[in-house]
Amino acid sequence: MPQDLNYLRETPSQTAGPYVHIGLAPGAAGFDIYREELGHDIAGPNAKGERIRVEGLVMDGTGSPIKDVLLEAWQANSDGIYAHPEHPGEVEDGFRGWGRVITDFDTGEWGFDTIKPGPVMGRNGRIMAPHINLWLVARGINIGLNTRIYFSDEDAANAADPVINLVEWERRRETLIARRSEADGKIVYRFDVQIQGENETVFFDI
Amino acid sequence: MRKPAEFYQRDRGRHPPAYVDTYKTSVTRSPQYSLISLQNSASEITGPVFGHNDIDPTDNDLIVNYAKPGEMPIGERIILHGRVLDENARPVRNTLVEIWQANAGGRYRHKKDTYLAPIDPNFGGCGRTMTDEDGYYYFRTVKPGAYPWRNYVNSWRPAHIHVSVFGTGFAQRLISQIYFEGDPLIPMCPIVQAIPDPDAIEQVTAKLDMNSTIPLDTIAYKFDIVLRGRRSTLFENRLEGN
Ligand SMILES: [Fe+3]
Known about the structure:
The complex is a heterodimer.
Chain A: H1 20-24, H2 26-29, E1 51-56, E2 58-59, E3 70-75, E4 98-102, E5 110-115, E6 120-121, E7 127-128, E8 131-137, E9 145-151, H3 155-159, H4 170-173, E10 177-183, E11 186-190, E12 193-194, E13 204-205
Parallel strand pairs in A: 1-11, 2-12, 9-10
Antiparallel strand pairs in A: 1-5, 3-4, 3-8, 6-7, 8-9, 10-11
Chain B: E1 36-37, H1 42-45, E2 77-86, E3 96-101, E4 126-130, E5 136-142, E6 147-149, E7 155-157, E8 160-165, E9 174-180, H2 190-193, H3 198-203, E10 205-208, E11 219-222, E12 225-227
Parallel strand pairs in B: 2-11, 2-12, 9-10
Antiparallel strand pairs in B: 2-5, 3-4, 3-8, 6-7, 8-9, 10-11
Fe (iii) ion binds near residues 157, 160 and 162 of chain B.
Keywords (chain B): Dioxygenase, Oxidoreductase
GO biological process, one term (chain B): 3,4-dihydroxybenzoate catabolic process
Pfam families (chain B): Dioxygenase_C, PCDO_beta_N
């Protein structure tokens, strides 16, 4: 009798649909139900490092902003440590490193406040440049899209980053870089996501 | 501390492709370039950790979590329960499971939903819970109604509950939909049928579970969720790089 490997198989993905807010951000859907919605505070009050804002649009293949996207961010602290039991090191009290944000129903703009993460140790002892992992879902997206936000003021680290360097097309690497600007003493990084088309953002199969 | 281990490669052939011409919204929302495959690093094998203080004990009971005192939502009372497992059939413990759904009439409590079926004043339509030590989760709710949507002029979604799960690493992050066994709209739905494998469609269909019903009270459906499994071996190259 042949041996059976007995593995289960992953549940198939389905689109989050247009009403994802009800489950994951009910306030935005128009009602208050939970004591506290999750994912509003990524870094917490005690996080060290530079306070930043990251914002942008998500555009479809026609160049129109998509207004029903939900994005989740996952990042290390300023020492490059993830708030997770399998990552060696400590994070500040209250630092979760995870956030959830939606696009504005009228403009499609999204944005979150956090701290700039530090470089993270990658495979083979190669340092990964500071980055925020981004996952996004929406109506019309059948399986969540993964990308990474790198930072425009990290040229040297980005040039050495093992993940950026997997992207053979040098032009496309630019789609992973958030552009830094400073206004009224606030540091803002702009990260527009192009789902489809000429300047399509690099997405990863992680 | 558990040693870092990477996830099995995702079987993309089991998931709906990004571009599905019969699901019209996907046409301009699907990347055209290939995804770049990454070997897992610390950024993918870690993910957010939630605790019981993040949620309230009644968050998993949609029959009471938005109802006025002494009132209840209208609809068929159901238990939706099952386990979150990985591909090695091991329970995924203490992981956050979130659901959302239309009410019994097929109407969502959402400022963008304009379907003529009425809002139920006693139904919010969302719930969340953490799996226990066996990976088990449990919700109580009402069965959602089918609803029309703009794809073809006469497109109807089968009754479904949306579900979001985390797992232990960001690479396991998954959103899906739970359908109900026997629903005649399942074979007609472009979103369901975007799943290429009939066996995989079975996997998103909850089964009537008579043994878990509460007699004279609530009917039950069972739905197990499977997240990506992990290798039993460690990274060959340790995260510390030494
Ligand atoms: Fe739905």
